[in-house]
Amino acid sequence: MIEKRRQLFLAVLKDRDDETRALAAEALNALDAARSLEHLLKILRTGDRGQRMRAIFALEKFESAQVFKPLLSELESNDADIRGAAAQVLGNKCHPKTIGSLVKLLKDPQPSVRVYAAAALGNFRDPRLLPYLTPLLSSDDDRLVLATAAALGKIGSPDAQDALAPLISDPRPEIRRAAVKALAALRC
Predict the structure, then answer these.
(1) What contacts 154, CB < 8 A, 6 or more positions away?
(2) Is 64 in the same domain as 100?
(3) Phi, psi of 48 (to 5 degrees)
(4) Neighbour count for residue 1 (Cβ, 10 Å)
(5) Same domain, 39 and 85
(6) Are residues 60 and 12 in the same domain?
(7) Containing structural domain, residue 179
(8) How far is residue 173 CA from its own chain's centroid?
(9) In the chain, count of helices (H) and strands (E)?
(10) Total structural domains in the chain?
């Protein structure tokens, strides 16, 4: 059925009318994108680890509600890299219904997943996330503290100031720099 429709659109690309050709090209692109999405979703279900990782990152390009359920299910993967990749993509897509699942990842046993989750949550720019993020600033994991400070800076809420202020005197220069950047990004 879809292939027949595709062939019809291909034939219309030879139409004499510019607008008709443009509509056919647009329809053909949409049809091909839908086929690509179906292919990527199949890879998520059946592909090997590398294929699944590439599929996760490729899903970021799609503006379709169909991507969220598979990406959310990848947050439950036994593979920490898969969970981290899914967190990154979901954070970049910023769909409000994914916030709760990303917040849960802040307690993931794998440190890198917690880092990706903190960074992803910063993209939402939602001050209601502060109570989940600010406790992470006391972590021994430098990468988590850096990601959290950056996320708080992106959120920009002045309520993050008190949590970020102690980092100004942290013995680690990269933490102090991150704190200054985050504090500078807070709204007045």
Answers:
(1) 122, 123, 125, 185
(2) yes
(3) -80, 180
(4) 5
(5) no
(6) no
(7) 127-188
(8) 28
(9) 11, 0
(10) 3
